[in-house]
Specification:
Layout (H helix, E strand, L loop, with lengths): L1 H27 L6 H11 L11 H23 L5 H4 L2
Length: about 90
């Protein structure tokens, strides 16, 4: 049973990764969110398993927002303790 649950978890993780990668592509290339479902359909036609959820333009907007928030938080943490040139000369 554990092996079955692990396999299910891996499948879900892989599907989610593909959805996030597609949403990232839409945002990075500045395409309209309406392209997201069509790109997922194209991936499915080409044999990529993207699952059955989170295929709307609203899902793409949510993923983009989460990615942006994650990157911003990471940058805040990274530069929190960095002195600017003006601060170090005081």
């Amino acid at each position: 049973m554990d092996r079955c649950n692990q396999r299910l978890h891996e499948d879900c993780h892989n599907q989610l990764k593909k959805l996030i990668t597609t949403a990232y592509h839409v945002a990075k290339t500045e395409q309209p969110f309406t392209q997201y479902p069509a790109l997922l359909d194209l991936q499915a036609i080409n044999g990529v398993d993207v699952g059955g959820k989170y295929k709307s333009k609203q899902a793409c907007q949510r993923v983009k927002t989460e990615l942006l928030d994650t990157v911003q938080e990471s940058l805040r943490k990274r530069f929190k303790d960095v002195e600017t040139p003006c601060e170090s000369s005081r």
